[in-house]
Amino acid sequence: MSNSQQAEALRTAMAEAAAEIDQALDLLIPPSEGPEARLFDAMRHAAIGGGKRLRGFLVLEGARQFGVGRDSALRAAAAIEMLHAYSLVHDDLPCMDDDDLRRGKPTVHKAFDEATAVLAGDALQANAFHALAEPETHADPAVRAELCRCLARAAGPRGMCGGQMLDMLAEAAAEPLEEAEIGRLQTLKTGKLIEFAAEAGAILGKAPPQLRQALCSYGRDLGAAFQIADDLLDATASPEETGKRTGKDAAAGKATLVGLLGLPRAQAQAETLAAQAASHLDALGDRADLLRALAAYAIARRN
Questions:
Q1: Closest C-alpha to 148, from 164, 130, 135
Q2: Can you tell me whether residue 255 is helix, strand or coil?
Q3: Which segment of the chain is annotated as a signal peptide (predicted)?
Q4: Cα angle at 54 between 271 and 277, to 5 degrees?
C-alpha cells in the first residue's frame, strides 16, 4: 500500500472510529433529567463531538492487533476519551490556561460556569474508571484492574497531573527550562496518556509481554512527536484550523521545544520521533499499517 493509500485508509478509519466512540460516549454519558441534568449536559458538551479521537483510535487499533471484541475496545476507548476530556476542561479554566475555545466551540466554563466545569471534569474522570471497571469492558477482573491501574498511573502525579504542575512552574521560573527538562514535562503532561492508549489494546488482548512493550514504546515516541507537532501548530496555525486559540504558548512564556530549538529543528525532531515510533511496530507486521500511518499523520496534521 502506497503512502497516499495508507493516509486515505487512516482518514477513513479515524472518521469511523470517531463516530463509534461518540456513540459509546452517548451511552456512557446519557442525557439526564432532574437537578443533575446540568452536570450531564456539561459532561456531554466536553466529551461528545469534535476532537481527533487519537487516544481512542489508538485503543481500538491496539485491540484489533489481538482480536479483541469491538464493544469491549470501544468501552476502553470511550473511557480514555472521557479522561482526556476531563483534563481539557480543567486545563481551560481561568486558573490554568484560561481558554474560551475548544474543538471549535466554547469551553465548558464559558458555556456553563466555572463551578460546573470543575464538577464536569471531576465527573468525567470518575466515569472513565467506572466504565473500565464494569464487566462489560472485559470478562476478566484482572484485566479490568490492570486497565484502571495503568490509566491512574498515566493520569496522576507521575503522569498528566504532574506534567501540568511542571508546566505551571516553568511559566514562573527565573531561567528557561533546558531541552531534557522540557522533554520530561511533555512526556508527563501529554505522553503518558498516549502511551497508555497504545498499551490498552494489548492489556485487553492479554498480549505477550514483548508485544505489549512494543506498543508502549510506540505510544511513548508517538506522544513526544504529537506534542511537538501541537507546539508547532500553536506557533504557525490559525484558530480556524485548530479549533482553539493559537499563539498562546509564546504569549504565556510556556516551555516548549519550539521555543527552545526554533521551528526547523523542532520539526526535524518530531519527524525523527515519528519514524522511531513506527519502527517499534515491526513485530506486528502489516496489520499495524494504520498505526504506522498514524505516526506520519501526527506530525503532518493542521489541527
A1: 130
A2: coil
A3: none
A4: 35
- Cα–Cα distance measured from residue 268 to residue 152, given in angstroms and rounded to the nearest whole number: 32
Q: For residue 238, give the CATH number of its domain.
A: 1.10.600.10
The average pLDDT across 238-250 equals 63
Average pLDDT of the chain is 92
Name the residue with cell 458555556: 111
What would you report as the CA-atom Rg of the chain, rounded to the nearest whole angstrom?
Answer: 18
Read off φ and ψ for residue 35, nearest 5 degrees. Answer: -60, -30
Please state the domain count of the chain: 1
Q: Which domain holds residue 24?
A: 3-300
User: What's the pLDDT tens digit per position in 167-225?
Assistant: 989 888 778 888 999 999 999 999 999 999 999 999 999 999 999 999 999 999 999 99
For the entire predicted model, the pTM comes to 0.92
pLDDT digit string (tens) for 87-101? 999 999 999 989 999
Provide the percentage of residues in the chain whose pLDDT is more than 90.
74
- All cell numbers assigned to 40: 450531564
Q: Is the dihedral of CA 36, 39, 40, 41 positive or negative?
A: positive
Beta strands in the chain (DSSP E): 101-102, 105-106
* 148 contact partners, CB below 8 Å, separation of at least 6: 129, 132, 133
Q: Give DSSP secondary structure letters for 226-241.
A: HHHHHHHHHHH--HHH
In the chain, the largest separation of any two C-alpha atoms, in whole Å, equals 54
CB 237, CB 246: distance < 8 Å: yes
